[in-house]
Structure formats: C-alpha cells, structure tokens
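User: I've been trying to design a sequence by hand for this structure and keep getting stuck. Would you show me what you'd pick, starting by listing the structure so we're on the same page?

Assistant: Good idea, let's start from the same input. This is the structure you sent:
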C-alpha cells in the first residue's frame, strides 16, 4: 500500500547518474493520469561507501543494491530504480522486477585525453576501468596496455582522466550520454571485439512482489523489447553463476519475432576466450540465454571461470 498522502517513494543511490535515472522514472510516472506523486529517497550503498578497494575484492554481488532492496522490503520505499546491470540475476524473496525501461546505447565508450580509438592509443598507455570484463577484453585486444583501477561516479572518473592519472578510461556509453557528457567520448568499442555487460544501458524498476498497486503503475513503463533482450542476457549470466566479478559479456537484439544474442567469457589476461551466438523465438528469451551459457561452458567457458574464481578474481 502507498502512504496516506498517496505519494510513491522511489529508492535510489545519490550519484548523479542514479538520480538522473530515478528522476527519469519519476517523470514517466507523472505522465500517467492519476498516478501517485513520486518522491525520491536517497540511499547510500556499500559500493558508495567503499571507494578505495577494487570492486573485484569486495565480498558479495549486491554492493550497489542491497541497502536499497532492504529499504524496499521494510516498506521505507515503494519502488527502487537501478542500473539493471547492477541488479543480481536472482531476486531476493519478496521482490520482483516490475519494469525494464527502454535501453539506451549499450556500448562501452573510450574517453581519452586526445580523440582516439583504442588502436590509436600509444604502446603501454594507462587505461582506467573498475570492471573485470573490460579489463579482460582490453587485455585481449591490446595486451600492451597498462590497466589501472578506476572508481567513482561518472563525473569523478572523467575528472581523474582530466587530472592526468590515465591516458584513457572506459565507461558505459549510456551513463555518459544520460549526463549530457557525450562530447567527451573519443570512440565506441565495437560489439565484434567488446561485448557489453549484461543489461548495460537498461534501467530496472524493482518492487515488492505482492504490491499490486505499485505493480500497476510501474507496469505501464515496461518496454517489452528491452525486457525480452535483458531477460535472455540475465539468464545467460545466471546460468554461468556470474556477476560483476566475472568477465562475461552479452548482447541480445530483436529482429521481428526473432531474438539473437552473442556472449563471451574471457580470461583476465585476455589470453583465452570463448564466444558464441544463438537465435530463436523471442518468447523463448530465457531459454535462449540458458542454452547459450551451456554452449559457452561446454566449449571451455567453465574452465576459464573456474580459474578466475580459484585465483580470487571472481569473488
């Protein structure tokens, strides 16, 4: 049930990008006749508090979502807005994915001190990223690069580039564009070599499973094509038992009623990788994701992931 003043409380992180996403959802709700008035509730997560440790060394997988999910479960907020790529593929009991909004640009973007593509960077250039997937795919493409840890929100990371700590950094294009900073993008990393994180560019709205009133308002915001594609991608990641700590990339797209998805598993040093693709009816999105994951496992993906976990790189 909503509070007596008929407001709908939106739980979100406080970063510029998280607030943009929450305000985007709030504006969409305000456009629905009769919808409750949205109110943002800012929540600090473990990932926000711990800024001096690489993400791969932080225990668990929900460090950008747990506190927000707890607020949802204890009725402190009515819904939560997340970057869908941060949201675990297994929902906590009592919670559900109420809507997936239309996806922004899913690609990764290179931001450099001078306009450049990845091939143009000088030998041994220092490139910043906090993502194991990006580090692995960068090492596969350009093994000469010096890959350095980079934490902070989007403006903070760009400021660190401007301060001279890096020759280039890699960020999700969606976040850069949403903050109107796309003029800083030097080039986009092509899917042929650099598959994005699962659900990259999509916004997920999480709700309580039994809250039918909130589900009704939120359901109006769901974008079925994005929902189908991210369902397939998340099924792949769930089957591989992965998360932010494993170098897995995937991207699904629709052509009419046919869904096609590519996936990759890559070792941290970039020396070994397994890629695959699958197509089928959009109604089988989840099953397609599972099937592609099983294919990757059978062709060596499991050995790659086991090696990473044993080495402590995939906590």
């Amino acid at each position: 049930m909503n509070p007596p003043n008929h407001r709908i409380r939106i739980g979100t992180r406080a970063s510029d990008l998280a607030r943009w996403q929450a305000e985007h959802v709030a504006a969409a709700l305000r456009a629905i006749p009769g919808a409750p008035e949205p109110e943002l509730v800012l929540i600090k997560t473990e990932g926000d508090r711990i800024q001096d440790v690489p993400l791969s060394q932080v225990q668990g997988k929900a460090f950008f979502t747990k506190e927000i999910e707890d607020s949802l479960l204890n009725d402190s907020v009515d819904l939560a807005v997340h970057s869908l790529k941060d949201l675990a593929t297994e929902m906590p009991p009592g919670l559900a994915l109420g809507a997936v909004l239309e996806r922004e640009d899913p690609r990764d973007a290179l931001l450099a001190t001078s306009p450049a593509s990845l091939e143009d960077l000088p030998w041994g250039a220092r490139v910043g990223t906090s993502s194991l997937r990006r580090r692995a795919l960068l090492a596969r493409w350009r093994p000469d690069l010096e890959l350095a840890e980079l934490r902070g929100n989007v403006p903070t990371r760009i400021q660190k580039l401007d301060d001279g700590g890096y020759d280039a950094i890699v960020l999700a294009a969606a976040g850069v564009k949403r903050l109107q900073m796309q003029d800083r993008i030097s080039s986009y990393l092509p899917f042929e070599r650099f598959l994005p994180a699962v659900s990259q560019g999509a916004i997920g709205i999480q709700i309580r499973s039994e809250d039918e009133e909130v589900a009704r308002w939120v359901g109006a915001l769901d974008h079925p094509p994005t929902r189908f594609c991210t369902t397939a991608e998340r099924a792949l990641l769930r089957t591989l038992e992965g998360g932010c700590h494993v170098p897995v990339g995937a991207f699904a797209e629709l052509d009419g009623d046919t869904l096609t998805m590519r996936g990759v598993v890559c070792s941290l040093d970039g020396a070994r990788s397994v890629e695959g693709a699958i197509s089928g009816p959009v109604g089988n999105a989840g099953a397609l994701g599972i099937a592609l994951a099983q294919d990757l496992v059978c062709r060596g993906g499991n050995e790659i992931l086991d090696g990473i976990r044993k080495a402590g790189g995939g906590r």
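That's my pick for every position. To get oriented when you compare it with your attempt: The longest helix spans residues 285-310. The domain at 236-310 is CATH 3.30.160.40 (Double Stranded RNA Binding Domain).
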